[in-house]
Design a protein that fits this description.
2 helices, Trna Endonuclease, Chain: A, domain 1, alpha+beta
Length: 127
């Protein structure tokens, strides 16, 4: 299985969870190009109770030495914030609307093909 296929599995697991927990999926795989070399992607944009969540999904196989959510570091958070603001602007949503950056960690067991899922809300504390 390629990393792209694994990522798609994680995103599908996350979307199922979100839908089953009252979220409405607004967008998937939003990509923004800032120049010839810089691009960014938000995996899932969803809304629940008037709050828009920009969700980064990290998927790994088996028991990694670190947790997938650890990859949503300061640099990634800063990039996700910039992407979220671009999405809001392009979709004519006022920037002062309620929104947050969330993260999803999916660890897939290679033997059983079952996924362990964790959802982290509002992972960016400042900007």
């Amino acid at each position: 299985m390629t990393s792209k296929e694994l990522g798609k599995i994680g995103e599908n697991v996350a979307c199922d969870y979100l839908k089953n927990n009252g979220y409405r999926i607004l967008d998937r795989n939003y990509v923004k190009l800032w120049d010839d070399k810089t691009k960014g992607e938000i995996d899932i944009v969803a809304r629940k109770n008037k709050v828009i969540s920009f969700i980064e999904v990290k998927t790994m196989v088996d028991n990694p030495d670190f947790f997938p959510e650890d990859k949503v570091n300061y640099r990634k958070q800063k990039k996700l914030t910039k992407l979220a603001q671009s999405w809001l602007s392009e979709n004519k949503v006022p920037l002062d609307s309620a929104w947050q950056i969330d993260a999803v960690s999916v660890i897939v067991d290679a033997q059983t093909k079952k996924a362990k899922f964790e959802y982290f809300e509002n992972v960016v504390s400042e900007y």
